[in-house]
Design goal:
Helix content is 64%, strand content 0%. Helix 2 runs antiparallel to helix 6. The chain is globular. It starts with 10 loop residues before the first helix and ends in an 8-residue tail after the last helix.
Length: 200
């Protein structure tokens, strides 16, 4: 397996290659999940440096846990599980289970490219402005609602698996997702008179 072929392998194949001594395979895994994982961490913590620290810790912990990992085709879920637990630990240590004040680091905004192409009003079409608006709205959610909303958006886990990860009843997770969406719409409608709430 050469470097150029790494990107065509499944997560399972990359793990096998890495365990067989191919360091490039692990780099490919990191690249594959970099944007989704970092976006999740940033939007949970609200701070670029903190997100980067937890991102690094996630992959270090993953490396240490690899000998115990049993591949079941759910590497992404396992990765987000590790990241989630680190976010919770960080929140407990820093007493940040409520709303988060997001910083304005431009480097975190590339995950909103799909939103700005949704037929936005001219005065809000500026990507950075819209990104800040959405980040601000997400920061107003409760910690629990933000967990469910961001895990679903960035990991694409089924709600049943999110329920297991968070150790909450499925109905509770579904309700928290519903309230997260309602609260996001309400915030955007109140602040921008309904002009951009249709993106949610």
């Amino acid at each position: 397996m050469n470097d150029n072929s790494c990107s065509h392998f499944s997560d399972s194949q990359l793990l096998i290659e890495f365990q067989g001594g191919n360091s490039r395979a692990f780099e490919t895994l990191i690249d594959r999940y970099r944007q989704a994982l970092f976006s999740y961490l940033f939007r949970m913590t609200g701070n670029c440096d903190t997100a980067e620290d937890i991102f690094q810790d996630t992959f270090l912990k993953l490396l240490n846990s690899l000998p115990k990992y049993k591949e079941q085709g759910k590497f992404g879920n396992w990765l987000f599980n590790i990241a989630h637990n680190l976010v919770v630990d960080h929140a407990r240590k820093n007493n940040k289970f409520q709303t988060t004040a997001f910083d304005n680091d431009d480097s975190v905004f590339n995950d909103f490219e799909h939103i700005k192409n949704q037929g936005m009003p001219d005065k809000l079409i500026e990507a950075k402005e819209l990104n800040v608006i959405i980040l601000e709205a997400v920061s107003k959610l409760s910690f629990e609602q933000r967990q469910v909303f961001l895990l679903r958006e960035h990991s694409q886990m089924p709600f049943r698996e999110i329920s297991e990860l968070l150790n909450r009843p499925l109905n509770t997770v579904l309700a928290q997702m519903r309230y997260a969406l309602l609260n996001l719409r309400k915030y955007l409608e109140e602040k921008y008179q309904g002009e951009i709430s249709h993106v949610l």
